[in-house]
Amino acid sequence: MGSHAEVDSSSTTESRWSLEGTTALVTGGTKGIGHAIVEELARFGAVVHTCSRNEAELNECKHEWEKKGFRVTVSVCDVTSPSERQKLITTVSSLFDGKLNILINNVGTNKMKPTTEYKAEDFSLIMSTNFESAYHLSQLSHPLLKASSAGSIVFLSSVSGVVSVNVGSIYSATKASY
User: Fold this and answer.
1) Helices vs. strands in the chain: H and E counts, helices first
2) pTM, whole model, 2 decimals?
3) Which segments does the entry list as coiled coil (predicted)?
4) Which has the closest alpha carbon to 174: 102, 115, 123, 139?
């Protein structure tokens, strides 16, 4: 019987999953899944840029990421605004020398209420945040992703886009769109 060499799983994982030399944009990276994605990408060596509407949360997260040694830059952006989306991509292009490897369309919002109680403003907010921003940011980032020769776009969806979940019909529609 031959002996089995012991493998150090941490070094194997790090070498197999290295993102050293890659760049990433994560929308909505200060909370929840977005925050976890920013940290995981940075942990694997990617240089990450993230955005949020809340400058105080961005600065708090940036400080924590700096303490961890992560290479993360931040900017304030309301993704419901087409001009702010354009400004975000211009910033990312400048920071990453015109190249982007990974776009994570994470940002999302919801207002839970019965379908008959939604107002036009609710529809507009949820659609522009969850669907329109992801679509437009994907379009805007296309030249940067193409320039990297290894571009990926990730859309964060939800089970509510596939099965009936009591979270609101507009939210479910936006998540089914991916």
Assistant:
1) 7, 5
2) 0.88
3) none
4) 123
Greater confidence, 113 or 17?
113
Residues in the chain: 178
Report the number of distinct structural domains present in the chain.
1
64: amino acid identity, one letter:
E
Q: Is residue 7 part of a domain?
A: no
Q: Break the chain down into helix, strand, coil percent, rounded to 5.
A: 50, 15, 35
Annotated catalytic sites, by residue? 171
Question: Is residue 23 within 8 Å of 102, Cβ to Cβ?
Answer: yes
Full residue range of the structural domain in which residue 85 is found: 19-176
Other Cβ atoms less than 10 A from the Cβ of 4: the count is 6
Contact between 73 and 83 under an 8 Å Cβ cutoff? The reply is no
Q: Under a CB-based contact definition with an 8 Å cutoff, are residues 74 and 50 in contact?
A: yes
Best CA proximity match to 168, nearest among 112, 109, 128:
112
Strand order in the sheet with 23-27: 72-76, 47-52, 23-27, 102-105, 152-155
Q: Which residues contact 59 (CB under 8 A, 6 or more apart)?
A: 74
User: 64 and 39 in contact (C-beta within 8 Å)?
Assistant: no
Q: pLDDT tens digit string along 24-59?
A: 999 999 999 999 999 999 999 999 999 999 999 999
